[in-house]
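Notes to self after the Tuesday call (sharing in case useful).
The group wants a holo model before anyone commits to mutagenesis around the pocket. I volunteered. Ligand is FE3-S4 cluster. Logging inputs and output together so the record is complete.
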Amino acid sequence: MTKKLFVKTYGCQMNVYDSARMADVLAPLGYAPTDGPEQADMVILNTCHIREKASEKVFSELGRLRLLRAERGQPMIIAVAGCVAQAEGEEILRRAPFVDIVLGPQTYHRLPEMVAQAARAGGAVLDTEFPPEPKFDFLPAPQADGAAAFLSVQEGCDKFCTFCVVPYTRGGEYSRPASAILDEARELARQGVVELTLLGQNVNAWTSDGWGLGRLIREVAAIDGISRLRYTTSHPRDMDDDLILAHAEVDALMPFLHLPLQSGSNRILEAMNRRHDRDTYLRLAERLKIARPDLALASDFIVGFPGETDADFADTLDIVRRIGFVQTYSFKYSARPGTPAANLPNQVPEPVKEERLAELQALLLEQTKAFNQACVGKRMSVLLDRPGRRPGQLVGRSPYMQPVHVDDVGDRRGQVVEVEIAEVHPNSLKAVAIAAERKRA
Ligand code: SAH
Ligand code: SF4
Ligand code: F3S
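Result:
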């Protein structure tokens, strides 16, 4: 009998990948995905611990699920997975004792056992171990969901930036062997995937058998059917020469790189333990653009890190102006329990953080808008992977991750199509398909 599984995902792309893999693991038990908790036999909240707000959402969601289950009067397994589960497993069981399963990001290959145990025990099952066996060795083949897919190649972090919980919630750096990654990539290509995003908390720290990420990218790009490649998220410290060269040499590698900078102030970068300074980043940006002149950069920023002065913040605005980012995520610093920065003196008052965030976001938005505007009249390739709001319309992503919609493009879902950008809309670009014979080489 089929049972319905609803997985709600918070946080980063790694969690999106993990959610899909949890569904793969549960499929042999008869669980098929459903899009809401109402009818679900099992609900998994795949959680994120990165900022306080993200974490707290979990408890309100759990409250709603408890009510729903009681009103329905029909059993529902409630599981909490991901980084909040890892960091606060015991706390979850204390604050929400009605939860059936709590599991960390490294144990979800054991989900079938946990489900069986939860059914038997009547009590909660908690598994937040960092097991010696890598979960990847126990996962079934992935089921592609469309023409674009994530492929996790690296996990965990040894960098210990002083603001960040990831090294604690995900554990140390682990690289999957190249052969396992290539097998998974070939399987996804066989299922019709044309665009792959290689994932890792520090994806460019990936290494296996003397290969670095640049070599892996070349090998994946050589797989039949894979025509677009991306990787995320990178650390500036791990951009080696070969990886930069791959941007010049591998056509399939999209000219877009998410390379978080966090701050433009040397003092703050040092206090964050980012282990590079602003000049190193500026040089890196320059070398990448020499390698691939159409490359655009995206970044993350934190404002209001403890001790950040007006002058430090001005350095951030200055480097943003110098580099120009096309897409950015910026956040107010959130003190996370157990991280070194949470105990630093000189925490920045909330209103100051808010003011700085607003100023930075206004500048970043201006840059994104200018970039979008400059795309008008340009030709680019778009992977049209989903239907749009209007009949006959398809939507996809440009090389720069901009959502692009194309009208009356026929049945070309799942294909990479050459388009010319026609208009900028508030949340997307409108484009027209270019006839095949006029296509650029
Ligand atoms: N590995 C990536 C980032 C992963 S976390 C890197 O090294 O850049 C994603 C983003 O969340 C970070 O880039 C950072 O901007 C933000 N972030 C992490 N911890 C935070 C905190 N305590 N407060 C505010 N933002 C935070
Ligand atoms: Fe967090 Fe820093 Fe590791 Fe990125 S590199 S995951 S910000 S500790
Ligand atoms: Fe959040 Fe964990 Fe990702 S804390 S950002 S889900 S690694």
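Two things stood out.
The longest strand covers residues 415-424.
The pocket of iron/sulfur cluster (ligand 2) is lined by residues 157, 159-161, 164, 166-167, 201-202, 235 (CB under 6 Å).
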